[in-house]
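To: structure desk
From: M.T.
Subject: fold request, one chain
Message: Could you run this one when you get a chance? Sequence is below, nothing fancy, just the single chain.
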Amino acid sequence: MLSVTFVRHGETVANVGRIIQGHSHGELTERGISMAEHLGRHLSEEKFTRVFSSDLKRCHDTTRHILKHSSDGDVPEDLIVLDQVLREVCCGDLELQPESELLKISRQTGLYFPFVQIPGGESFQDVKARTGEFFNIVHSKKPGNLVITRRSIYVTLPRLPDSNAPDRYASGKYARTRMLPDRNASDTNASVKYAS
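Reply: Done. Structure tokens follow.
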């Protein structure tokens, strides 16, 4: 069984301005840094065997602020795996636009994020496939703990077992230990069980 600690990145300037970030890097605010530092102290006794993060700056910075509080000492940069597959949903034409623009599309279509198709952006199915791809890669390595910093994984994971995600993960069973959070610099621990 794979034990996973999911983490959402700290508050960014765009979060404060209610701007859609998607694949843009984003910059943590002072509060966002403080949130990540606080979470790092909270998780300081966790023994992470592997650490994965989106390659987006807001996620990588959050990961570094968390891991510098590890009881194992500062985790070397080369042990953090940065991967584009962990990026947030690509919001296409709405990247760096006010969140109110997404609300307009939602009202027009009757669909809400993450199910609304954003012009030039990824579909919900695309994001589910990326998430499933990542867990297939992780499962092929030795089981253990990891940190992931991305919001859309919270949205896709509870739905993956019932979806057409790739390979093993699609037929696996996912057990949440509590609701997956949607707040900046929040964490949750979950167990992922794979079908044989």
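Reply (cont.): Confidence is low (pLDDT under 50) at residues 158-181. Let me know if you need anything else for the meeting.
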